[in-house]
Design a protein that fits this description.
globular; transport; membrane; MFS_trans_sf; TM_effector; transmembrane helix; single chain
């Protein structure tokens, strides 16, 4: 395995897609910060603020499986590019609504929900394209590039969003995000090759969905990777969607502090992606996962007990590093073991499970925050993450070979209680 973090950029198609994705990810973070801050300021509610972030990610639970079917039947490049254009259209509608003076969280959330659903339709196609863009030993570095793009947007987006919101207002700021989807769609169309899957498209919709689930169950690395990702999304990832209300309720901060925390998280995430890519040639995957889970639990506890703004920004950076290290490691395990003909459906099931678990976790952690406070809520999440990981590892008698890639394709087994 190559440990050079930027080796995939030697391919023209990777350079084209990655640079356009960076532009689009900047726009997405501009929208998350601006709309989240508007709702936090208007409502003062962790649940209402969390719903805005939830609307951005929850559609994965419904639309991703449909996107997986499309990815395993049609040219994945065309599916992805078309979904981006639909996402651009709905984001432009959100900009128009904000321009008309609408601030009702329910209306904003509904439009974001539809736009994100369009994105979730295309995401499995993009994920399924990744192993075909690079050599097998470059796959982790390729997945890490997505971390750099997403978190580069997390760093630049809040700063750009803060400036744009103050100068041209929220409507034109969201219009900027709509334009970035058009840019990315154009880059996808410019990749002049086919990504049509071979096999896996026969049968009814129900049969193909069941086939994708069976393929996921049979590949031990895929199954275990999805299970641990669900746990992290239930317990830890909700802190991201609650950054605006945490900054406001606990530190009396506004868009500026929210942006600083998100940017710090992005900087940390880039560092975490670089670190895990370079360590991958030396550390077994099972050991890497255990280290990162411990890291995340400790970092979330420190975040929950941060005494001031400087400390919470620093903790956000540490959380960002651990989060990206985790998802790069787990995504590589899933991509490694996913059969090419059902890769789209497996990736869609992974995205769907993460979207649903994130939504549940966001509502639970947000509700605890409203009932007590977010410091208590994040502490509960940290303890649940560590305890849940220990239970998963103990109950699976194929944990180590599955995570390390040594398991035979006989499916995962859980030890009976």
């Amino acid at each position: 395995m190559s440990n050079h973090p930027f080796r995939p950029l030697r391919h023209r198609s990777v350079r084209l897609l990655w640079s356009a994705a960076l532009v689009s990810d900047i726009g997405t973070w501009v929208q998350l910060i601006v709309v989240g801050s508007l709702v936090a300021a208007d409502t003062g509610s962790a649940v209402q603020t969390g719903l805005v972030a939830l609307a951005t990610f929850m559609p994965q639970g419904i639309a991703s499986p449909i996107g997986g079917l499309l990815a395993d039947k049609f040219d994945r490049r065309r599916v992805f590019a078309s979904a981006l254009l639909l996402q651009a259209t709905m984001t432009a509608a959100l900009a128009a609504v904000l321009g008309a003076g609408v601030r009702d969280p329910a209306v904003l959330t509904a439009i974001i929900l539809v736009a994100s659903g369009a994105g979730a339709l295309g995401a499995p196609s993009y994920q399924a394209m990744l192993p075909d863009l690079v050599e097998p030993d470059e796959l982790m570095a390729m997945i890490s590039l997505g971390v750099y793009s997403w978190n580069g947007g997390r760093i630049l987006g809040p700063m750009i969003g803060t400036v744009l919101a103050a100068t041209v207002g929220p409507a034109w700021t969201i219009a900027f995000n709509a334009a970035t989807f058009v840019v990315l769609s154009g880059a996808v169309w410019a990749v002049r090759r086919s990504f049509r899957p071979h096999g896996g498209a026969d049968g009814t919709i129900g049969e193909r969905l069941v086939g994708g689930w069976r393929a996921l169950r049979v590949a031990p690395g895929c199954f275990h990777g999805v299970m641990i990702a669900i746990l992290v999304n239930l317990t830890l990832i909700p802190f991201m969607g609650l950054i605006p209300i945490f900054a406001s309720a606990e530190f009396d901060g506004g868009t500026g502090l929210t942006g600083a925390m998100s940017s710090a998280q992005g900087i940390g995430a880039i560092f975490g992606g670089l670190l895990v890519t370079m360590l991958a040639v030396r550390v077994r995957r099972s050991r890497m996962v255990a280290i990162v889970i411990g890291w995340l639990a400790a970092a979330l506890l420190a975040y929950a007990t941060s005494p001031n703004q400087v400390a919470v920004i620093a903790c956000a950076a540490v959380l960002g590093a651990g989060t990206s290290a985790f998802f790069v490691t787990v995504s590589t395990i899933i991509q490694r073991d996913a059969p090419p003909e059902s890769r789209g459906r497996i990736m869609s099931l992974n995205q769907a499970s993460m979207g649903v678990s994130y939504g549940i976790g966001l509502m639970v952690i947000g509700s605890i925050g409203d009932l007590a406070n977010l410091r208590v809520a994040f502490t509960v999440g940290a303890v649940a993450l560590l305890a849940g990981f220990l239970v998963l590892r103990h109950r699976s008698n194929t944990w180590y070979p599955a995570i390390d890639g040594d398991a035979a394709e006989s499916g995962p087994r859980l030890v009976s209680a």
